[in-house]
Amino acid sequence: MSEQIKIRKAVKEDWEKIYQLYNSLSDEDLYLRFFHLYRITEEDAKRIASNEDHVTFLAEVDGKVVGEASLHKDGEFSLVVDRNYRALGIGTLLVKTLIEEAKKSGLSAIKFYTLPENIPMIKIGRKLGFRLRFYEDEVYGEMKLMEKEVNINLATSSSP
Ligand SMILES: CC(C)(COP(=O)(O)OP(=O)(O)OC[C@H]1O[C@@H](n2cnc3c(N)ncnc32)[C@H](O)[C@@H]1OP(=O)(O)O)[C@@H](O)C(=O)NCCC(=O)NCCS
């Protein structure tokens, strides 16, 4: 299957494909993606495709967009995969792509929030090495990408 899956950055013209993907999602999927139930508008789909304050990657199978993953400037990301294409490794592939993108962008960490019952997302986080924190109503996953540079000013002042 993996040779048929193409992961690529979204371009403006993809908005309709993104809109179609979102229209095919169940209420539950939308809730998991946005943390509340929300049906996106055409304008929202255009914003997702714009890459303006985030970067979006798409998973395509035979030209059909079956997954979308967006990484925001603060390192938070979220994703969704079409129900008919799940458990094939697409979600894992998308998150791996976002990790690489976050590293390239110089982000110090990448993170996600999900619900405690979201087993596939928790599996992805665990498998890829995210540090997971479990709370009553959410799970927080974080991966540090860079240790902050410690600037130790070793002043080599020569005493008089
Ligand atoms: C989370 C989501 C993106 C995962 O997509 P996916 O393409 O199925 O992910 P993968 O195929 O990489 O599967 C990840 C793991 O979950 C497992 N898995 C997939 N579906 C499963 C299910 N219904 N029950 C249990 N495990 C499942 C896979 O076997 C895999 O396990 P492994 O790593 O041990 O092999 C997808 O379920 C989804 O779109 N959910 C709704 C939106 C959402 O929850 N977004 C996340 C918000 S942060």
TrEMBL record:
Keywords: Transferase. One of its GO terms (molecular function) is acyltransferase activity, transferring groups other than amino-acyl groups. Residues 5-151 form the N-acetyltransferase domain. PROSITE patterns: GNAT. Pfam families: Acetyltransf_1. This is GCN5-related N-acetyltransferase.
